[in-house]
């Protein structure tokens, strides 16, 4: 099958999460992502658990569809090879601390002289400008500083970190968007550019309505718990075997929910007739609903509410997510064969495209698995030349 | 300044959040986004609080840089106009429930016949295939079903919804990525396509290492609280006036932290020498650290830890985020003039591009503000023709 980013060559210097997530998205859509790793150790996340046969499941799920070449970028000869590769590439992506590439003599200003068409994407904690630029950040730090923790957590409780590293993941997504937009510009003009994405900036960009609420009310929003602040009922309710999220987003859906419950009188009740009234009397309504929802299992309520068209869902743990019929029907859990680790399940490709569906074509590379292949293919080197370089310990 | 997506014409049928977020990202980078709204009511989120002078701050922050035309797509004449517009457009984006566009006779299969170059992006709760396809979803439902709630929350506590509507926002980001990748393919081949993005799929795609952990251990991960499961110290600590996130990600950073604290002996302590040891003895280490951190303010610790290069940050509430020097230096809080609401602060553009920096050029449109302008410009209609149509109540 054709791929949307076929023919786009990406030199990928990224490690751990934000950068590798960005290049994974591109690789999933067909870009030729060449992961350049330090000899012997490679991407730090190769050492992150959990492991299967000593291979990191974390690394394997983020680096599918990529090829690996090792290069010791501190060695002058390796730098030369990298520069030769830049001449043949479309995109360079890195997520070092700002200044690192410049110290290596491989900053954007240098690479641009070598290839003015190059798109250079840098993902970092705080970005390539501003007073904190040179500081290191981790996901936990930008989640703390960017405000998302302050509005996540139990109502009345403490700020809470979002489970997945959303600070890294959103930076990866915005980086991919920046690269693709720059590609569009280059297609029209022939000119490359630098794309600079900061994890902290991305946290601010995803705050949704929290900024608007603060600007208008002058009060900083707090952790909101699981209840919607202005729609009722819109929260999880206890069932006989767990919980169910019920989101009756308007009056018509509330009537339908009451019909399912056999409590049609609620829809006529002066306290519950309209959404604003229900929100006002939420403390009275929730116990009434819970009394009903406790009488059946989550699955039973789910079937009944689905039939009536009332938005609802179980609060799935990961095992349940991985066997959900919709998730499976959409190929969102796939299985990849790895030469060392065997079969490995991981998340599929969430962008479904009618002409160029992205797929997982290859497992994550072993460290330096494609060094020889890439040097031959990209730089036209011979086996002899490569063997000679091997003795210089540059890869 | 030139813009990366200049010249790309987007017909935007989206409402509320996931779709409008995707088209905002494109509009911020220069795409000409024409928001098509139902006459009189418009985008549902025009009715969402908080308000300034009766204008929704929520709507205004998501719809900057777009133009608005009203069209009653149920009227045959309006459909004709829409079809004429599709002939001139590059992209159509909608986030209706699957099947709605087909019912209107405006599904992808129809539009493709009219313009085979069109890129048709659909963002929905569950996607355009699979057993749940036709069901409605809200952010709370996909956060519940997709697993993110099950791994967010206080340690030992209940699953917790992420504060911002991350289900919508990530779907918006993946939709933008899909459209841009499809544009690249079209630039090479002249062929358009359908891009189908489900909120639920995107939740699975951002679970990060949770799937790997479950696959390897057979145990579904639980809410993890604010502490890192395998790095110590890596969590918020009490200060004299709040909390500070300290992320000493390796042994060298731990030594630096101890130097700042004046507790160099910890680095020699048999319980705390290495990260695995610190993680094993976390219950002993955390009270010791807290005893120290309680002695100064968050700001004081921040300055000291920054100077030593130890990653750290305050847990900012939204008011603090909006006055953070780095956030301001990166133009991540901007002010937009609105003709009714006056000055409004909102999040800036997180993708920093050296050649084509995205900017907020215009405030969110009033309902139908550009109807006449767009009909003239795009379809070459005269004032007389437009006046005649006005009488038919199609916009």
Strand and helix layout:
2 copies of one chain form a homodimer.
Chain A: E1 9-12, H1 18-28, E2 32-37, E3 51-52, E4 55-56, H2 57-62, E5 66-70, H3 76-88, E6 91-94, H4 100-103, H5 108-114, E7 119-124, H6 139-145, H7 166-189, E8 193-198, H8 199-205, H9 210-217, E9 234-238, E10 243-247, H10 251-261, H11 275-280, H12 282-293, H13 298-308, E11 312-314, H14 318-321, H15 325-329, E12 333-338, E13 342-347, E14 351-353, H16 371-379, H17 383-390
Parallel strand pairs in A: 1-2, 1-6, 2-5, 6-7, 7-8
Antiparallel strand pairs in A: 3-4, 9-10, 10-11, 12-13
Helix pairs in contact in A: 1-7, 7-8
Structural write-up:
Two copies of one chain form a homodimer. Chain A is an alpha/beta fold. Chain A folds into two domains: 9-206 and 326-390, Crotonobetainyl-coa:carnitine coa-transferase, domain 1 (Rossmann fold, 3-Layer(aba) Sandwich); 234-314, formyl-coa transferase, domain 3, CATH 3.30.1540. Chain A is built from 17 helices and 14 strands. In chain A, β1 (9-12), α1 (18-28) and β2 form a beta-alpha-beta unit. The two termini of chain A are 34 Å apart. The mean pLDDT of chain A is 96. Chains A, B: Its EC number is 2.8.3.19.
Short key terms for the protein model shown above:
CoA-Trfase_III_dom_1_sf (chains A, B), Rossmann fold, CoA-Trfase_III_dom3_sf (chains A, B), 39% helix, EC 2.8.3.19 (chains A, B), transferase (chains A, B), 2 domains, homodimer, elongated, alpha/beta, 16% strand, formyl-coa transferase, domain 3, CoA-transferase activity (chains A, B), 14 strands
